[in-house]
């Protein structure tokens, strides 16, 4: 959703948190007098709107949801309609279904109403939204991905460490690059971004701790840690097999930061 308009609705322009992201940040409403009013979205950890406020922080709209997106209660403090739901979804108020680009989603049952257009590439269950509605998203209705998969990562911290004189990429490549075979620094960065944005599989886990997000694949041993608000990669490495709980170890380390 970029813009919407209608005879009984102000023209609304939507702004998202990042390029290629489906998480709403704000919307600009233009009324009949051509005056612009900016509204800000407040979302849950998975990017679904929970509140809409004006420029002064006054709550205009709020809604609470069950795990799979079914409304518990919705309150319009002012005559304003807000139809964005899970990332990439738009509520059809006549049917109660969520338009999800390639098909419709039913929040009452937590399933799509049509089979996946890409068939088994989206998983064995052709009607499933995602294994977990709290940390997975499917903005196009084609293939689910985690929170990390919906973001466009800038890379490692470009600033040089005062002690080592190396940038974040240089330092982490020297420490972990060899774990991925004979690859150069640019290939290491490319692999990190590809792992961060690939669709989640049954062997992968993802967790969010404050501003940090951790992703782990038990089949390959890959571990990725990033700073969500900065869209910055913090580290990317392979589990060396010494720990019985590498994913939990990465989570605990993020909690200490």
Automatic annotation (TrEMBL):
It comes from the Bacteria. Signal peptide: none annotated. InterPro entries: RHS, Rhs_assc_core, T6SS_VgrG/RHS. Coiled coil: none annotated. Pfam families: RHS. Residues 38-74 form the RHS protein conserved region domain. NCBIfam families: Rhs_assc_core (TIGR03696). This is RHS protein conserved region domain-containing protein. It comes from Snodgrassella alvi. The lineage of its organism: Bacteria, Pseudomonadati, Pseudomonadota, Betaproteobacteria, Neisseriales.
């Amino acid at each position: 959703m970029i813009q919407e308009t209608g005879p009984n609705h102000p023209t609304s322009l939507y702004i998202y948190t990042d390029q290629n992201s489906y998480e709403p940040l704000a919307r600009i409403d233009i009324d009949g007098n051509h005056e612009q009013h900016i509204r800000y979205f407040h979302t849950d950890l998975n990017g679904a709107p929970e509140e809409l406020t004006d420029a002064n922080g006054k709550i205009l709209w709020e809604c609470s949801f069950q795990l799979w997106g079914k409304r518990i209660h919705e309150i319009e403090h002012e005559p304003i309609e807000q139809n964005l739901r899970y990332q990439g979804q738009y509520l059809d108020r006549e049917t109660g279904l969520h338009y999800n680009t390639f098909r419709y989603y039913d929040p009452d049952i937590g399933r799509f109403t049509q089979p996946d257009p890409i068939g088994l590439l989206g998983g064995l269950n052709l009607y499933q939204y995602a294994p977990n509605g709290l940390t997975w998203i499917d903005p196009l209705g084609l293939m689910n991905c985690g929170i990390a998969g919906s973001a466009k990562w800038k890379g490692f911290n470009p600033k040089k460490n005062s002690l080592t004189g190396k940038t974040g990429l240089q330092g982490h490549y020297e420490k972990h690059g060899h774990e991925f075979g004979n690859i150069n620094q640019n290939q290491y960065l490319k692999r990190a971004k590809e792992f961060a944005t690939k669709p989640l599989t049954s062997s992968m886990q993802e967790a969010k701790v404050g501003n940090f997000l951790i992703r782990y694949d038990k089949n390959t041993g890959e571990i990725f840690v990033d700073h969500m608000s900065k869209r910055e990669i913090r580290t990317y490495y392979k589990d060396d097999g010494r720990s019985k709980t590498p994913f939990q170890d990465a989570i605990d380390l993020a909690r200490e930061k």
